[in-house]
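Course assignment 3, question 2. Fill in each field.
Student: A.L.
Task: Predict the tertiary structure for the chain below.
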Amino acid sequence: MRLLHTSDWHLGRAFHRVSMLGAQAEFIGRLVATVRERGVDAVVVSGDVYDRAVPPLAAVELFDDALHRLADLGVPTVMISGNHDSARRLGVGAGLIDRAGIHLRTEPAACGTPVVLRDAFGDVAFYGLPYLEPALVKDEFGVEKPGHEAVLAAAMDRVRADLATRARGTRSVVLAHAFVTGGEASDSERDITVGGVAAVPSGVFDGVDYAALGHLHGCQTITDRVRYSGSPLPYSFSEADHRKTMWLVDLDAEGAVTAERVDCPVPRALARLRGTLEELLADPGLARHEEAWVEATLTDTVRPADPMARLTERFPHTLSLVFDPERAPDDPEVSYAKRLAGRSDQEIAEDFVAHVRGAGPDTDEQGVLRDAFDAVRADEAVKEVAR
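Answer field:
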């Protein structure tokens, strides 16, 4: 069976205030063409179909168009909700849409009930594990302390239990939206840390033939059987070096996996430039970036006059301007933002405690801070569901 694995469409999202709707529509066109031209038997979409719980009308219309085009091809599609989606909204009408071969899986309780498709070698069971917010699903899965690994492991126990009841030789595919250990993050994914931990081990997916992952925006291989497709478009300059693709996955009669990357359309190249303003304006080696979307980091010790206006004369698609004057590490003018770069909320809070009282938090106090951050995230998740 040949699968086309994609995820993280984020329909409705902009790139530094530039609408991506046209590029998203072009991607949908490429996806449909790939399904038709490459003999795809099933499409899997591993979450974050939309960028937010209440997407703009234009994004909903594009999603509707995508569903109609996929249904017209007669190729089954399995989708799950991600942490950006409203599971309830995305799942509206799932029972009716199911009849058209579009299978929306947004209910955690149904993770052990697969969509079963068939090829010349027998059945392939597709299990949809929507994004599992630990605080919201811990009771459903009977875990005492909510955490990503605990709820995902419990969901996979249901998958393996159902698979054990099926005919010998039944192959299996799991769709999941999670941060798996070994994956490389970018700046455009929403933090899903709970209890100080965001990642789960890839071994949680043992027992299935292929795990089609979503959430991380870079296409990557965790193991031969556990892969991220990545987002089809860039949503931050941290993705400047990404090659945006989908996975074309062949599952043979024994469940062995072979995979090929299929390129997504590139609306415009990304470039991250660094130097003084005069260096960026004068360097002939930067000519290749003149039509790219540009993030420029200026290292001038004194902020130059009208930097954006001057930059856009040469790089008309400059979208982000960052000031990072070159200073000695002990210079008191080193920016606060730079000192915080790459640090978690927990680490920042612990540093603040150390700053105001002269000693960092002890183990119990670290636990209190961790619980507080988890409570805030859980409250935000509840609000997202209610919207």
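Instructor remarks: The mean pLDDT is 91. The CA atoms of residues 185 and 274 lie 22 Å apart.
Grade: pending
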